[in-house]
Design goal:
The protein is of the alpha/beta class and 406 residues long. Helix content is 33%, strand content 30%. It is built from 14 helices and 13 strands. The strands form 2 sheets. Strands 1, 2, 3, 4, 5, 6, 7, 8 and 9 form a 9-stranded mixed β-sheet that branches. Strand 11 and strand 12 form a beta hairpin.
Length: 406
């Protein structure tokens, strides 16, 4: 959908730009439309990479459409961002046009150097789009930009759609826009969590259209871990499972699937699953002396997707026992996420904002020591789950087979 909207926007540019009085009479042939940007720190300089759309390759009337890549990637270097961007004129006949830029990908070395240069560029430039999605990568940002993605012509649009889809249906990560990055890093805790991208599989570079002609690809771009940025520097990573726990704490669960074990039949492992369709988390800070405790109350509802246990879900008692197991599983996920951020003293969950809102006077006294106070906080988590539907069968499939044989 995002890709189609971008294509529609580009078609509008095709019509609009040649017209007198439209956007200062800028001609399409004079600009290079950037769909994604990469930021790396290399050889003591900032390296900016640009994923530029090739209009001929996305036009259905062009002979090149479908046979050539729809984007081209190139890089420039400089001591700061604006110098690097200005050097684009040395190797491209067109002026870079960022109005359709959809994602910014920051390499690990650049993120450890500090993203204040990126924030400064966005705060100073009136044409910057704060709705752009921000990602990290443990490798090189340019290499991620070079990867073509099946089903979408423009990789930048596909990556943004990926985080939209995950946020709504998986809830492991939250979309992090430039607006959120700036807002969080200018807030009391000055911490933000940014999802990362990685090239999974064999690591083969998908930078040629003919590699997409196969029915499967040996590698692909996917969402991976969550990077913790404190101050303006990357300080560490947490896994996607731990990130899921933070999403529960932050009340950011839209829809997700939870795997769980059996209540009391001795089986090990997570053999069943429930689709969570509704979730709500409430936070209540409580002060005791110089320490704070955050009471976390979570309520969730969902539909059973798989049930491989010996119980009978037609019996209310069995349903209650299963709901309790699911609640304990969610609680454990939340606790793992909480433990993961404590070591970094990084308030990614926004507890400081809650205390600031509800206890402003106390916050004024403690905000300077908040990282240390945050690391000493305790959480008390209470989770309740309601199973709305168990499907057409009360027992698992194996139990039905045994009943049929008897």
């Amino acid at each position: 959908m995002i890709g189609r909207r971008l294509l529609s926007g580009l078609l509008a540019l095709l019509i609009c730009l040649p017209l007198a009085g439209c956007w200062g009479k800028v001609e399409l042939s004079d600009i290079a439309i950037v769909s994604a940007t990469g930021i790396d720190w290399k050889d003591g300089q900032w390296q900016l990479s640009y994923q530029v759309v090739i209009p001929q390759a996305i036009s259905g009337q062009s002979a090149a459409a479908g046979t050539n890549a729809a984007v081209n990637v190139f890089s420039t270097k400089g001591d700061n961002f604006r110098i690097a961007i200005s050097k684009a004129s040395l190797e491209t006949p067109r002026r870079l046009f960022f109005a359709h830029n959809q994602v910014v990908i920051i390499g690990q070395d650049a993120a450890r150097k500090g993203i204040s240069a990126l924030a400064e560029a966005y705060l100073r430039n009136p044409d910057s789009r704060e709705t752009v999605s921000v990602f990290l990568t443990k490798g090189n940002a340019r290499r991620v930009l070079e990867q073509l993605i099946p089903l979408e012509k423009i990789p930048g649009a596909a990556i943004q759609q990926m985080i939209f889809n995950e946020q709504l249906n998986g809830s492991t990560f939250q979309e992090t826009t430039m607006h959120k990055v700036l807002k969080d890093l200018l807030g009391g805790a000055q911490v933000v969590g940014i999802p990362s991208l990685a090239i999974s599989g064999t690591g083969e570079s998908l930078d040629q259209v003919d590699k997409l002609s196969r029915t499967n690809t040996s590698s692909k771009v996917r969402l991976m871990d969550l990077g913790i940025v404190s101050g303006d520097k990357l300080v560490g990573w947490i896994t996607k499972e731990e990130s899921s726990g933070l999403m529960w704490i932050k009340n950011q669960i839209k829809k997700t699937t939870v795997a769980f074990g059996c209540p009391d039949d001795g089986k090990e492992g997570k053999v069943s699953s429930i689709r969570i369709t509704k979730a709500k988390t409430k936070l209540r800070p409580q002060r005791s002396g110089s320490k704070w405790t955050m009471h976390i109350e979570t309520k969730a509802e969902g539909t059973l997707l798989e049930y491989n246990c010996s119980g009978d879900m037609n019996k209310p008692k069995e349903v209650d026992q299963t709901a309790q197991v699911i609640a304990e599983t969610i609680k454990a996920t939340m606790e793992n996420g909480w433990k993961a951020v404590l070591g970094y003293k990084a308030d990614v969950v926004g507890f400081g904002n809650i205390i600031h809102q509800r206890h402003p006077d106390a916050w004024k006294q403690m905000k300077g020591d908040w990282p240390d106070l945050f690391a000493e906080m305790e959480v008390k988590i209470d989770v309740k789950v309601k199973v709305n539907s168990a499907g057409m069968s009360g027992g698992g499939f194996k139990k039905l087979q045994e009943k049929a044989r008897s």
